[in-house]
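User: Can you recover a sequence for this backbone? Please restate the input before giving your answer.

Assistant: Of course. Working from this structure:
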């Protein structure tokens, strides 16, 4: 089904800056109503609360905006803190029943969720692209990521294992078991609403938990659309659909979720500032939190690197998703011997970036998500100039409908200029030089966050220094690939101000379960550990 109903030529006014060039795509007209209807939504006010059935939110009506045009997509009624508390009570009530279902049976439900997403990937991807602002290819890749996590979780449902340890006492059995936590709260950001829900939900479900989701208020429609797909799978299998509940809302609704002691684990993806506040909320009630926060990510390029590979990787990492991934490239750390050549190649590549509406075929860089994002972009470009940096490419807001800015390259006189130490969700790339790998590692590790990093080199000595104990301090330490685009098989997350959480692959399932150490005495004596006599 085609949702592009028309297109017309678009002339974009370019800044007088000679260095600022780009390739403009054509402006398109979107059949928004068809996209909504294909996802079970209307162009009226859609309900924003699902507690096993759809109910009207009692909060404000939120309007969703197409970042590529500034036009209205649709509306949704937001929930209230009281509706969140009601959903938590419903989840708590259901948790024992769902926990009693065998893990492989829960895995079968997750398998069917993955299949349902496969069947609806086209309409869901169109809505995701339209509402978030990412290009269609990336939106479809995001839905595929949820599908991939479902496949991973199905196998995991039959392989989550405990441990057996030798006991020092005769006729004793010492083991470790894992059981469901109960209720998991999930708060996601605007940039990956589908994938991040998938990372959490698929693993949390096979772990035996009931889940409550609060999506970002700027992407309410795709949030509701995903729940509609999943709830049908529950209904088909005779399972209470309240295993996944949705309460749309703002900070007050989020606080009702984070502060409630009935929520056993709170998973939050978002900014470091908000994450710190949430972590304190959860810690104050001795709850568990899983934090996926910001990243001021760097690529380090050695003098022996494959520069063709470098340029392709940097372009995707810095310009893809208009720089709005937590793993987007912010800092490019270049060996002094290749600095000039890499910068020249990048400037040429930036000149050929096709910009346009996110749903138009051929677009590589779509809009920023909101007007606030545009203002943050302008603020950081001005700060870079104030900090003594040079704008080598871009730096301007485009004179056209929507929230478009030019992908920007900034040359920094030193690595610790204030602008480069701040994570900005925009396509701004700060370039800096180094002489030795030790210096480059110090630069990589100098920021507050520790999410993603990558080294480009052909030298095995460099590689093992980079991934070793005195190398990159990030949770994701790559070699010869971009900082973004992680596979689901490995644990995703970072260190320091990134929060320390791990989601998706590897043994991340342990975050969603409680661990018990069990000692069983199957004999007739009562020997004590450490040889203690108490007689």
């Amino acid at each position: 089904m085609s949702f592009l109903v028309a297109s017309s030529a678009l002339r974009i006014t370019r800044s007088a800056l000679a260095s600022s060039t780009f390739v403009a795509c054509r402006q398109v007209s979107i059949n928004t109503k068809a996209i909504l209807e294909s996802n079970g939504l209307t162009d009226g006010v859609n309900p924003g609360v699902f507690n096993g059935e759809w109910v009207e939110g009692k909060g404000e009506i939120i309007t969703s905006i197409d970042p590529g045009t500034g036009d209205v997509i649709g509306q949704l009624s937001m929930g209230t803190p009281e509706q969140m508390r009601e959903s938590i009570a419903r989840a708590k009530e259901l948790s024992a029943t769902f926990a009693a279902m065998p893990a492989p049976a829960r895995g079968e439900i997750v398998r069917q969720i993955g299949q349902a997403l496969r069947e609806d990937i086209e309409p869901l991807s169109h809505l995701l692209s339209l509402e978030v602002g990412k290009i269609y290819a990336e939106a479809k890749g995001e839905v595929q990521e949820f599908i991939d996590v479902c496949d991973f979780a199905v196998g995991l449902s039959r392989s989550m294992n405990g441990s057996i340890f030798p006991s020092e006492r005769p006729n004793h059995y010492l083991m470790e078991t894992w059981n469901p936590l109960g209720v998991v709260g999930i708060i996601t950001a605007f940039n990956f609403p589908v994938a991040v829900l998938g990372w959490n939900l698929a693993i949390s479900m096979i772990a035996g938990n009931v889940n409550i989701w609060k999506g970002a208020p700027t992407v309410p429609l795709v949030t509701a659309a995903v729940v509609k797909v999943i709830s049908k799978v529950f209904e088909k299998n005779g399972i209470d659909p309240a295993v996944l509940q949705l309460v749309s809302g703002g900070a007050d609704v989020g606080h009702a979720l984070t502060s409630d002691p009935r929520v056993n684990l709170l998973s939050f993806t978002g900014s470091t500032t908000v994450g710190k506040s949430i972590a304190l909320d959860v810690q104050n009630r001795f709850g568990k939190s899983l934090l996926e926060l910001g990243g001021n990510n760097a690529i380090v390029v050695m003098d022996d690197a494959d520069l063709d590979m470098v340029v392709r990787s940097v372009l995707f990492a810095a310009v893809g998703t208009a720089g709005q991934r937590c793993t987007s490239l912010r800092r490019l750390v270049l060996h002094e011997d290749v600095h000039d050549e890499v910068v020249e190649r990048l400037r040429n590549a930036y000149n050929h970036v096709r910009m346009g509406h996110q749903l138009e075929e051929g677009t590589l860089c779509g809009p920023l998500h909101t007007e606030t994002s545009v203002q943050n972009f302008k603020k950081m470009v001005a700060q870079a100039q104030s900090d003594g940096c040079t704008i080598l490419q871009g730096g301007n807001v485009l004179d056209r409908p929507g929230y478009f800015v030019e992908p920007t390259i900034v040359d920094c006189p030193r690595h610790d200029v204030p602008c480069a130490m701040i994570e900005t969700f925009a396509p701004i790339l700060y370039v800096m030089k180094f002489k030795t790998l030790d210096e480059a590692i110090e630069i990589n590790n100098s920021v507050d966050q520790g999410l993603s990093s990558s080294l480009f080199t052909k030298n095995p000595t460099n590689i093992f220094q980079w991934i070793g104990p005195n190398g990159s301090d990030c949770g994701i330490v790559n070699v010869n690939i971009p900082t973004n685009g992680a596979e689901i098989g490995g644990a995703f997350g970072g260190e320091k101000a990134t929060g320390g959480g791990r989601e998706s692959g590897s043994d991340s399932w342990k975050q969603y379960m409680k661990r018990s150490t069990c000692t069983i005495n199957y004999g007739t004596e009562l020997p004590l550990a450490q040889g203690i006599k108490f007689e």
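That completes the design. DSSP finds 14 helices and 28 strands in the chain.
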